[in-house]
Fold this sequence. Notes:
Layout: H1 2-14, E1 17-19, E2 22-24, E3 30-33, E4 44-50, E5 63-71, E6 76-79, E7 84-92, E8 94-99, E9 102-106, E10 110-114, E11 120-125, E12 130-138, H2 142-148, E13 156-158, H3 161-180, H4 185-205, H5 215-226, H6 234-241, H7 245-255, H8 260-278, H9 283-289, H10 295-306, H11 310-317
Antiparallel strand pairs: 1-2, 3-6, 4-5, 5-12, 6-11, 7-10, 7-12, 8-9, 8-11, 10-13
Amino acid sequence: MNKEKNQEKTNVLLNPAISGTSIVFPNEKELVRPGKPCDNQKAIIDVLHLGPRVYCPRLLFNVVLSGTSSWCPGTSVERSKSGDIQLSIVTSGKGKLTVDDRKYELNVNDVIFLHGEKSRVLTALPPDRFCRHFMTLYSGFVLEIIEQMGLTDIFRIRLSKSKAEHVIQEFEEIDKLICEKPNKFRMKISNKLFELLLFLANETYGDPEKYVVPDYIEKCMNYAMENLDKPLKVIDFANASNTSVRNLNYLFMNFFGVSVYNWFTSLKMNLSAMDLKQTRMKTYEIAEKYGYADQFQYSHAFKRLFGMSPTTYRQILKGEKRSR
Length: 324
């Protein structure tokens, strides 16, 4: 009996409630200001399709709901900070997005990110109805993925007509999956959303496949991977790359934002952290593997980067200690 009650309570917290024309999350405040009715229709016409009822932590993305929104000019929705993330694309009309002290004009083919940790106001502007496709996502892993893709501070992305048509097609296919719920539809939705966000990130920053690593840096990186067990100096990297120390450091600072030495140290520390997690190697064995004179020298370098000793790091991974 208690188990059933707990399950019911969990579902209530995980499932938002539909209130009027919008979705409302726990601890979220929303203020809807309808504009004057136009085109002989209501000021707000939202078509909502609820996603799966329970959040699945195994998936990268979980959709709360999807649908379309059509507002008469003058309609606005103001939301305080909440746990949701909404992704939408403008299909007709004009709008305005206000996020804290930033304002964005919205036109057809614009993609809108409504991040949950920001207060925002979305307003429909004259003369025509402001229409969108939209999806609301549980935060979950999305926050980390959006941060990794560089989209945390992005609120509007302007697309060409052809690229916007591709995004709209993806919205419609996801909406169809939610409505029809075929076999493994949640996994298909999660995969589609990952590809969609990656597409938008590439539109914002450029295709990462087009980035070319300078030849000197490539030689340096290959040399580093082949000599992880040696206490290399910057002059060693410069000689292996057929360039000067000054030029190699300049290239690394411009490409990675760190010096050659700091890059190499960070590489070894991150690889050693994987060994601490995935193997039973002793600390002195790991120190030797990455070219340190002894485990104390290695521990000092590890602590400078991670703020804790290798031993403490491994204990935390095993659950023997709690990090502050």
